[in-house]
């Protein structure tokens, strides 16, 4: 340490300059996420993929309740978006993207297996080949529609939710849940209905199918929002790594 002149005050070394570009903004500092190595991510991911696969099989049947036309996937598919919201809110966009791509890969695998089963010769005593083809023979078109809508819709859902969270921090969870779901479900529903059933469901029934599908899925999100809140809160509290990680 260099001695100072007698009678002169001792000088404190100047603090190093900070590059503003390296300093996180206040909004980013409030955007908390957890590591995917925590105890819950793998379980949520597994349920997410199962919900997606089951929904696509159910979607091979068009169903109607009076004037309301939809498909069998409507019973479970909205849950996929709720799980997507939970993954995005707790673990961030990278984790959500990994979940979406994993679900995509599992759907491709399921499609390949169903196709191989369909074209394989029937064994002795099996008399349901026509029924199998009538149900799962339509499956490849459903898969094409579903994975296209699913990729666009889920990625938009996650991207919007994380962007809103980075802007608002932890507060107003309901805003990012509704905003992200509205954007993601609109894209998903329009793509899926067009690819899967354009030319199959005629005229007004098709338009009814698109509108009903979108309204129903968003309504399920709203109705189940208290449950979503509780699950997100529980996972955040029990994930030991949930903190100031921006991933």
TrEMBL record:
Sequence similarity: Belongs to the vitamin uptake transporter (VUT/ECF) (TC 2.A.88) family. Q precursor transporter subfamily.
Pfam families documented for this protein: Vut_1
TM regions (residue ranges): 40-59, 65-87, 99-119, 139-162, 174-200, 206-229
Lipid bilayer topology: Multi-pass membrane protein
Predominant location category: membrane
Native species: Brevibacterium samyangense
KW Nucleotide-binding (keyword) present: no
Record's function text: Involved in the import of queuosine (Q) precursors, required for Q precursor salvage.
Keyword terms, alphabetized: Cell membrane, Membrane, Transmembrane, Transmembrane helix, Transport
InterPro entries: YhhQ
Stretch list, region Disordered: 1-23
Compartments where located: Cell membrane
Protein name: Probable queuosine precursor transporter
């Amino acid at each position: 340490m260099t001695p100072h002149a007698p009678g002169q005050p001792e000088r404190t070394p100047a603090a190093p300059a900070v590059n503003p570009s390296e300093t996180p903004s206040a909004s980013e500092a409030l955007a908390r996420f957890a590591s995917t190595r925590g105890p819950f991510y793998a379980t949520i991911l597994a349920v997410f993929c199962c919900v997606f696969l089951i929904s696509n099989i159910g979607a091979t049947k068009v169903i109607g309740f009076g004037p309301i036309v939809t498909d069998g996937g409507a019973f479970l598919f909205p849950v996929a978006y709720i799980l997507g919201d939970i993954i995005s809110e707790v673990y961030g966009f990278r984790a959500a993207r990994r979940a979406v791509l994993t679900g995509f890969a599992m759907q491709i695998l399921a499609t390949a297996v169903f196709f191989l089963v369909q074209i394989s010769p029937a064994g002795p005593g099996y008399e349901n080949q026509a029924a199998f083809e009538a149900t799962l023979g339509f499956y490849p078109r459903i898969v094409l529609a579903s994975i296209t809508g699913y990729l666009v819709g889920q990625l938009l859902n996650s991207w919007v939710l994380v962007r809103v969270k980075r802007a608002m921090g932890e507060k107003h969870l309901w805003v990012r849940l509704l905003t992200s779901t509205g954007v993601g479900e609109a894209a998903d529903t329009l793509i899926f209905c067009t690819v899967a059933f354009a030319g199959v469901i005629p005229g007004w029934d098709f338009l009814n199918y698109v509108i009903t599908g979108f309204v129903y899925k968003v309504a399920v999100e709203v109705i189940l929002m208290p449950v979503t809140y509780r699950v997100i809160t529980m996972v955040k509290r029990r994930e030991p790594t949930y903190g100031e990680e921006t991933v």
